User: What shape does this take?
Amino acid sequence: MLDLYPSLAHQNIILMYQGAMSQTALTTMAKRLRQVEENYLLSKRLFAIMIELGQNINHYSQKREFSVADRREVGYGMFIVQKTPTHYIFTAANKIKIDKIKKMKSHCEHINSLNSKELRAFYRLQRRAIRYDGHYGGNIGFIEMVRKSNNPLQTKFTISDVDKELAFFSIQVTMNRNLNNS
Assistant: This one.
């Protein structure tokens, strides 16, 4: 573990968590994020991105763990925030079923292809859409992250070597520290 610390320190990691994505975990991470960013508007955007990523893990991760604080099973995943001189970089990862890859990939590619006006219209359309069973929210989390960060989503799907029905899904969102450049 001590050998790992120097390599992580050079990657500008300000927050790293792996485990059950409970409400308590999200609250603790939010407090940490507020400690490192003084700009109120930027802090609000960072908070929104963090919550969306955390809720994605909580609701959709195939690996589940019981949260004593939440008194229910919650999603298990990994969450990292890096702070560079010019950006904040959020990375979240969790296991998903392989049959979800095609739809998620298509959804992310579509969102990334939209300009800000089209993104706003798509957001409104999704908010009004009828939700289907097993789906939380209005299918707007990825849209919100692109709107808040003004940057495309970077996603990666890696098929598990252990369980061929699962894939490791990772998503990265980059937020400019200077809001005038976003």
